[in-house]
Predict the 3D structure of the following.
Amino acid sequence: MKKRFSMFTVSALVIVSLFAGMQINELISGDDIYAQLGKFKDVLVLTEKYYIDEVSTTELTEAAVTGLLEKLDPHSVYIAPRTFERVTEEFKGKYEGIGISFRILNDTITVLETIGGGPSARLGILSNDRIVKIDDRSAIKFDETQVQKSLRGPKGTRVSVTIVRPGTPEPLVYEITRDEISLASIDAAFMINDDVGYIQANKFNEQTHAEIQRSLNKLKEQGMKRLVLDLRWNPGGYLDQAVKMTDLFLDGGTKENPRKIVYTKARRSEFDETFVASTGEPFEKLPVIVLINHGSASASEIVAGAIQDWDRGLVVGETSFGKGLVQRQWPLSDGSALRLTIAKYYTPSGRLIQRAYEGKDRSEYQREAYERNEEEGYNVEHDLDTPISQDSARPVFKTQSGRVVYGGGGITPDYIVKDNYLTQTTANIRRRDLFVAYTSSYLTGEGLSFRSTYGNNLKDFQKSYKVSEGMVKEFKMFVESKGVTVDEKDFQKDLEYIKSALKANIAQSLWGREGMVSIYLETDKQIQKALTLFPEAEKIAGLHLTR
């Protein structure tokens, strides 16, 4: 404790001397950047040479860099070497490995689903399989880091996994050749009913535009005439991918008045950019509803803002996060990276989406986005009682048809529908991952026959399977056996959600992510309301499509 406290103290000293201008004998210098770098070097050298305890200069430098960035905006960050590789994978949208998603349940690697087209899926590995050995070494009690180190590796290399499959008496040994695996940014793309398609995007990485194009074409072949684009909990990503996604739904306007998607303003003029739509995509007149919530940020807000500003469709849900800053990432020499804000972005009407962050610590800034008190209901004219409409300091803008919209606080929906908020009991159950753990156990026993009963028929499962009262009671006992206190009033209040979650996790085991999402949508307030609003969305879009 003494050593850790001492290192923290030294880190603070370095940061304060660097940024607050403390007068530490001869370490005083002017504002010249090289003098400041000299000051930091002197402090670091003196600390490493004379401090009472041994210190890590790497840790002190990282602490100083982190302290520097805390003086800037909330979205400029330092990415340590140990996390940079993972972050790079997420944005590039691919890695090399065997292609499974998994959980550690009861100290055992349990396959949640195989990634379509990946080596595990091609060999016939199934959800709910248990990996007990990797290359003849026991994998019991592996943590997630050990699993990833063992299963990931260069394309073309081989790994042996021994699997215990419920209902199969003998362990199964698979020899898997690793391959490039896509980290999909589109979680689900399917038809909700005969004419409404649904696409759920979880991020904007290098693959997003290609993925959504494939999804739209697939749904069009299946009869899609309307689209729900779900950007809830999508934190954003690459700006160019948001532009390309939006361009799928907007025409290019005219030569004299091109249709802007987004533009940026920066201190340095080379970072000023304007992005405009082009004409020619087959989805430019497709009725669209965009779903957003408090977790929709950055690139998600670019898409929603452009759709709203051009009256291209309706935005439904809850006010978005409010991140209107553009970051550029620079790799550093030690394998770390600096992600620095270089510009602000504005929607076509001129709205800056960024919330105020001056004078707030980062935790307060983050918390604000999730603590808005919004009135539910029709908000096409943006006259509902919301924190944004109440704030007389918010700048007012107009959409293409003259509707009022506000800047400086995220995207406020045209129809506000609050999410299904869970009680503390159910939130604890979900936080402990007990829906997944119970479903895995259930499919090992009573639910073992599901595959043969339903086969590939998800629609039959949706219509005919009901979670029984007996299953609910058994689940409750399972939860209590894991040390979670169940408040009966909470449990009954969330009973519809609990049944939906159990059914959805069974569906994931049989049909993957799309199976799970399709079940959850049946009790999703926001999506169910959105499905009733297409006449209004078409009316809004017609205001400019017929001009």
